Every structure is written in structure tokens, then in C-alpha cells.
Amino acid sequence: MEMNPEAFAEVLRSYPLAVSVVTVGRGGAENAFTVSWGSPVAFDPPHFMIAVDRNHYSVDFIRSTKNFAVNLLGEGQERLAGHFARQSMTREHKLDGSATREGPTGAAVLADALAYFDCEVAAMHDVGDHFMVVGRVVDARVLHPGKPLEASGGLRYQKAGAGP
Fold this sequence. Notes:
By secondary structure, the protein is α+β, with helices and mostly antiparallel strands.
């Protein structure tokens, strides 16, 4: 039985999802992108997963560096989410101008994030038009109190590689 894609999208618009900036790479070769498909998947040992469009430039970074950090954004950080949501060219450094520090895995941690999960890649699964990337959490901290920025009610991402 096939799921109606419009019905699936309608339900997703009703489902609140935390918005995060995922950073990948180390040593100056880095990228960052906005996700709303992320979730903890295990408590002991702690694991976190993200879904990444299979055509996204950062998939190659994740495969090569085997790390990522999930930086949870807070209410009022829509502009920051938008900055990292836009598609970048391979030589653009979207992290320039953002205050960061290097986490234990080498991925950048955003100073303005509410909290973060710094992860080593444990598994990558091919799931339809996305890769599900599961990371073993090696460090996590709450940086600032606040409510998370949520994507619901019509926030849409343009698929990587799709035209305007």
C-alpha cells in the first residue's frame, strides 16, 4: 500500500519538530545546515539521529569526518535557521560570522544554541530520499535556558538539488 504524499505532508505540518543547525567537519573544513528531523534514539548508551537529504553537500562531510553536532535553536532564532537552511556552494563558509567552539568530535558548537549533542557517526541508513544518520553522543550540554524553535504549520524546506 502506498502512502499519499500530500496526506503525509499534512500530518507533518501538525507535528511539532525542533529546529536545529547541524555542523559537520573539523579543522576548518566544515559545513552547517538546518534540520527539523532529528531525535534521540537511545538513552544507554546515548544516541541521536538526524535525517539528511541524500543530495545535500554535507553528506560527503559526514561520511568522511564521521562526526556531527546538533545545535538546538531557540524561539526567536528563525533568521539563524534560515541562514543555515539555504543551499551553499562548496567553497562558501556558512559558519563565518557565527561564534563557535570546537566540540570533542571536532564539529562546531554554536555559542548561541540552546543546547547541543556532539556525536560520532555510528550508522548511516539509506531511507528513501534521505539518509538516517545515527550518532553516538559523546558530549551534550544546555548552554542557555529557553524554549526550542519549532517547525510546524507550514515551514517547508526545499529539497537539495531542486530548482527554484
